[in-house]
Design goal:
Chain B: GO terms for molecular function: NADH dehydrogenase (ubiquinone) activity. The complex is a heterodimer of chains A (459) and B (346). Chain A is mainly alpha-helical and 459 residues long. Chain A has one domain. In chain A, 72% of the residues lie in helices and 1% in strands. Chain A has a two-stranded antiparallel sheet with strand order 1-2. The longest helix of chain A has 32 residues. The two termini of chain A are 24 Å apart. Chain B is mainly α and 346 residues long. Chain B has one domain. The model of chain B has no long low-confidence stretch (mean pLDDT 90). The chains are: A mainly alpha (459), B mainly alpha (346). The interface between A and B is medium-sized, with 26 and 26 residues.
Chain lengths: 459, 346
């Protein structure tokens, strides 16, 4: 795993020592090369994990997430070039350093063996993200957004630290590879109920669960484009990944402790989808759509069947790529009109037809059109939740309908109709932007040919 | 002040603390405390104005009361054990009185009221000495009598200190008061683990001293005593703003910075001894501390606060020399990966 981590750390000296006209080229190229290295991890020979060392491992669950993380860094760098173009050189380098630091922590989090090391790196990802949101965001609300983001996550995760240490006392080790063999059933008692809650709440806040999701619209909307991309694509999946790992230790309590969270998620996905229908702010719409998709993942993880785990993993990867692409598209609008209001930039198909093609593809994958991997994820989750309880099909069906409604609403408002007269003079699409969208879309489309690699460890 | 006299007084302060830390006779310890107290009064009053007079008087009164209580505890101990050596305290009453006396010296709740006011009334350098060096002597005595301290009182004082340190700092804009409340909260963390594993108290003390030293050095460098004047640093020395950000996040206990290490170790030690609710409560209340550190970083590093000039860089006459800042910054932010080395302390 060091063959990925050390080059990523070395991206930091690379930025600081690059010349002014070479920083973007250098960093984007080398981060693309690093993502190429991580592709080798997708070759998972068996369901057991690939152990690289005592501290790092990768298994069929973490490998696709790792590839997504490393794939996203060059995309984030490409997306940030425009809004940083007017900043002084040192601030550009600081921004890239923050992104690289975040990337390093994320890679180490997804491959950590020891759960306490996972926790420390999980918390460590907060610091660069906070700095990116509050320092480089665009509106005054970003300060509040940063505070909400930091404190919601910390309130949830401090009990997790205590819970992990007490589990270490009970079982002797928190090395993930060992726990799966030493696992014992968790008896039912009040203190074990609190242990379950302490373990899960951190990831519930991160996902986010419907009642605890207030930080997400704020943080996504106020963050600069790279911040939004990494938040939507990866940081939410940290919660999902953590839940998938830690639920192995928490049986059989999950079968009855999960009920309130299942109810919240099932209801919340409908609620947040409905809110999307009434949004005026484009980024806010995409943020609430993220909450809705993640609620599906929570349902899948808490049901704990093989199909639901497959659906959760596929949905995480698919949503990561789709959401990140939608944010890039929204950002291309924002860079031209400096406003996130949807109706201010209507009818873009007439002005920017190629971008309209990308909008169409992104909206179609967002509403889970066959045969995209979004559909595979959602379908598996719907089927497994149907087998868990027949009535959920009503809610799931309603959710799919409303998702289609708001995705098409977003598409039609921004692309179709007569264009507003004040956007006559916007710049045409840059090659960089088209390349960005293509790099998002190509993995998404190609993965529908072989979804086996993203289906996780229950395939 | 005449440099020779200043050096002599400073040496007396050092000597007092050294006597406290190295004696085995209770009377010598008391003498060390008194020497320390008397010598630090002129240092607190380096600038002669009514505010410093008030602060020094408050400090003198509380510390003298604490020393008298300490003497009483020593005498009760002498009565019950017949000897003056420091081993453990032989009588529960003496133990309670001694713990209260040392809590008064450290500034633990409910004896914390003097800390913000004294720290606010004195200059930044004197405040630095007050909040770091002066904590060493009482903590060393607590370390030595730790087997015989009444657990209930100590834990109550610790938890209340963390609460008071968190809540009290929320309404402050004066930097010295913020550092004072931060000191109260950190003392709470240190005393909470004293009975379980005193080594962790010393670890926390070490890292706390490093971080507080760094913070005060950065404040002295920009000569700022309020949040408003600190927010002008982006105009004077932009690098300092990054350093303030890192050090404040470290003080708040965020991984991956070294301020997380004492909190993690303390939570681990408390959990190993089967107290689960206590460390959870302590950790959540430390978030209050984090809130006002974040507010400080918001006005200083993460935004460009409105400043008094339109120039790129403010003209200033002299740059104050800051000693030892780079190693301090490194130690106060990057020590977390060295945590496995703590096993040598066992």
């Amino acid at each position: 795993m060091l063959k990925i981590i050390i080059p990523t750390i070395m991206l930091m000296p690379l930025t600081w020592l690059s010349k002014k006209n070479m920083i973007w080229i250098n960093t984007t190229t080398y981060s693309l090369l690093i993502s190429l290295i991580s592709l080798s991890l997708l070759n998972q020979p068996s369901n057991n994990s690939l152990n690289f060392s005592l501290m790092f491992f990768s298994d069929p669950l973490s490998a696709p997430l790792l590839v997504l993380t490393t794939w996203l860094l060059p995309l984030m760098l490409m997306a940030s070039q425009h809004h940083l173009s007017k900043e002084p050189l040192i601030r550009k380098k600081l921004y890239i350093t923050m992104l690289t630091m975040l990337q390093t922590f994320l890679i180490m989090t997804f491959t950590a063996t020891e759960l306490i090391s996972f926790y420390i790196l999980f918390e460590a990802t907060l610091v660069p993200t906070l700095i990116i949101i509050t320092r480089w965001g665009n509106q005054t609300e970003r300060l509040n957004a940063g505070l909400y983001f930091l404190f919601y996550t910390l309130m949830g995760s401090l009990p997790l630290l205590v819970a992990l240490i007490s589990i270490q006392n009970l079982t002797g080790s928190l090395n993930f590879l060992l726990i799966q063999y030493w696992n014992q059933a968790l008896p039912n008692s009040w203190s074990n109920i609190f242990l379950w809650l302490a373990c899960m709440m951190a990831f519930m806040v991160k996902m986010p669960l419907y009642g605890l999701h207030l930080w997400l619209p704020k943080a996504h909307v106020e963050a600069p484009i790279a911040g939004s991309m990494v938040l939507a694509a990866i940081l939410l999946k940290l919660g999902g990944y953590g839940m998938l790992r830690i639920t192995t230790m928490l049986n059989p309590q999950t079968s009855f402790m999960a009920y309130p969270f299942l109810m919240l998620s099932l209801w919340g996905m409908i609620m947040t989808s409905s809110i999307c229908l009434r949004q005026t702010d484009l980024k806010s719409l995409i943020a609430y759509s993220s909450v809705s998709h993640m609620a599906l993942v929570i349902v899948a993880v808490l049901i704990q069947t093989p199909w639901s785990y497959m659906g959760a993993t596929a949905l995480m990867i698919a949503h990561g790529l789709t959401s990140s692409m939608l944010f890039c598209l929204a950002n291309s609008n924002y860079e031209r009109t400096h406003s996130r209001t949807m109706i201010l930039a209507r009818g873009l198909q007439t002005l920017l037809p190629l971008m309209a093609a990308w909008w169409l593809l992104a909206s179609l994958t967002n509403l889970a059109l066959p045969p995209s991997i979004n559909l595979i994820g959602e379908l598996f989750v719907v089927m497994s939740s149907f087998s868990w309880s027949n009535i959920t099909i009503i809610l799931m069906g309603a959710n799919i309908t409303i998702t289609a409604l708001y995705s098409l609403y977003m598409l039609i408002t921004t692309q179709r109709g007569k264009y507003t007269h004040h956007i006559n003079s916007i710049k045409p699409s840059f090659t960089r932007e088209n390349a960005l969208m293509a790099l998002h879309m190509t993995p998404l489309l190609l993965l529908s040919l072989n979804p086996k690699i993203i289906l996780g460890f229950t395939y | 002040m005449n440099p020779l006299i200043f050096t002599t007084i400073l040496m007396t302060v050092l000597l007092g603390t050294m006597i406290v830390m190295m004696s085995s006779h209770w009377l010598m310890i008391w003498i060390g405390f008194e020497m320390n107290l008397l010598a630090i009064i002129p240092i607190l009053m380096k600038k002669y104005n009514p505010r410093t007079m008030e602060a020094s008087t408050k400090y003198f009164l509380t510390q003298a009361t604490a020393s008298m209580l300490l003497m009483m505890a020593i005498i009760i101990n002498l009565m019950h054990s017949g000897q003056w050596t420091i081993t453990k305290v032989f009588n529960p009453t003496a133990s309670i009185i001694m713990t209260s006396a040392l809590a008064m010296k450290l500034g633990l709740t409910p004896f914390h009221f003097w800390v913000p006011e004294v720290t606010q009334g004195i200059s930044l350098t004197s405040g630095l000495i007050l909040l770091t060096w002066q904590k060493l002597a009482p903590m060393s005595i607590l370390y030595q009598i730790s087997p015989s301290i009444n657990l209930n009182i100590l834990l109550t004082m610790a938890v209340l200190s963390i609460l008071v340190g968190g809540w009290g700092g929320l309404n402050q804009t004066q930097l010295r008061k913020i550092m004072a409340y931060s000191s109260i909260a950190h003392m709470g963390w240190m005393t909470a683990v004293l009975v379980y594993n005193p080594t962790l108290t010393m670890l926390n003390m070490l890292i706390y001293i490093m971080m507080t030293l760094t913070m005060f050095m950065l404040f002295i460098h920009s000569s700022s005593t309020t949040m408003l004047s600190l927010s002008h640093t982006w105009n004077k020395t932009p690098l300092t703003t990054t350093l303030i950000l890192i050090t404040l996040l470290s003080m708040g206990g965020l991984p991956p910075l070294s301020g997380f290490m004492p909190k993690w170790m303390i939570i681990q030690e408390l959990t190993k001894n089967s107290s689960i609710i206590l460390p959870t409560l302590m950790a959540i209340m430390a978030l209050l501390n984090l809130y006002f550190y974040m507010r400080l970083t918001y006005s200083t590093s993460l935004t460009m606060f409105p400043s008094t000039n339109n120039m790129k860089m403010k003209w200033q006459f002299e740059t104050k020399r800051i000693t030892l800042l780079p190693p301090l910054i490194v130690m106060s932010s990057l020590l977390l990966p060295l945590t496995p080395m703590l096993s040598i302390l066992d």
